[in-house]
Amino acid sequence: MESSTGPTLLGFDVLLVGSILAGVAAVAVIFAIYAALTIKDPMAKRVKALEGRREELKLGLVTASAKKRQSLVRNSSTTDKVRDTLGNMKVLQQSQVDEIQQKLAWAGFRNKEVAVILIALRMILPTLFGTITAILLYGIEIYPDWEFKRVAAMAAALFLGYKGPEIYLSNIANKRTDAIRKGLPDAIDLLVICAEAGLTVDASFNRVAKELGRAYPELGEEFTLTAIELSFLNERKKAFNNLAYRVNLEAVKGVVTTMVQTERYGTPLASALRVLSAEFRNERMMRAEEKAARLPAIMTVPLILFILPVLFIVILGPAACNISDSLLK
């Protein structure tokens, strides 16, 4: 008894392929519905993390003496051991620590003690990666035909071990900076509205963070932290300078300068922020126009590699099939 088969296309069972695609589509629809019904607030975890900074300021860590600060701040024993080890080896320089701490702040990491761990990884990872690569290439000889390539692989492993953590940190910092840049014009517009409504600066920052926290969680986190510091720090200028320190963006530094000058000289805040908002929006429009101008050149390679071959298959495929059928007959 012959088994019944469905129609085939290019050797594939049409019914079977259609059933598989229908199942994939059903799973995708269920996943989309689940994702739409389980929307989580991206600021929830960030606000919990910022509560630690609020508690520190309440305890007086900013204005306390050095001895009191050391008694209140809980340093990691692991970090202290790493710091002592690097200090004894004479490889820990304060300039390196300050540079890594700045990059950590740009990437959104609040714990400055992690800088010591990253400096230690610069020493450990090249040795580890170099040892593993040497064992694989020269000991086990997984690629016996390689000659000069072995040296290049060793150099790549050492470079990756030394620069890998820094490259990863820079990648996170760049993504964070881009996310803050996108939401900054809207945030400045809301600050203008809050200033014209008569809200104080810290209340304005809190309101903007609440309104934009879902759309721009990174910007909402920075504004919330700035509002916390404005409420507790004795010098409001320090809170604004901390915002400029944490964000690697010239536009934020311009906002901070405007805020500091407004606090010092009593100039109208709304008018100054309105000028900044117009500049930021013009800058965003110019970046969009620049990307649009680069689009034809960027689309050339995908057009040649992916679109044109498919187009030729669609146009010439039926003719080729007819020709092959006529020749076979």
Task: Outline the secondary-structure elements.
Layout: E1 8-9, E2 12-13, H1 14-37, H2 43-58, H3 66-72, H4 77-88, H5 94-107, H6 114-139, H7 148-196, H8 201-212, H9 217-232, H10 236-246, H11 250-265, H12 269-328
Antiparallel strand pairs: 1-2
Helix pairs in contact: 2-9, 4-6, 5-6, 5-7, 6-7, 7-8, 7-12, 8-9, 9-10, 10-11, 11-12
Walkthrough of the structure:
This protein has 329 residues and is mainly alpha-helical. 80% of the residues lie in helices and 1% in strands. The protein has 12 helices and 2 strands. It has helices at 14-37, 43-58, 66-72, 77-88, 94-107, 114-139, 148-196, 201-212, 217-232, 236-246, 250-265, 269-328, and strands at 8-9, 12-13. The chain has a two-stranded antiparallel sheet. Helix 6 packs antiparallel against helix 7 and helix 7 (148-196) packs across helix 8. The longest helix has 60 residues, at 269-328. Residues 62-75 have low confidence and may be disordered.
Summary of the model, kept short:
The chain has helices at 14-37, 43-58, 66-72, 77-88, 94-107, 114-139, 148-196, 201-212, 217-232, 236-246, 250-265, 269-328, and strands at 8-9, 12-13. With 329 residues, the chain is mostly helical.
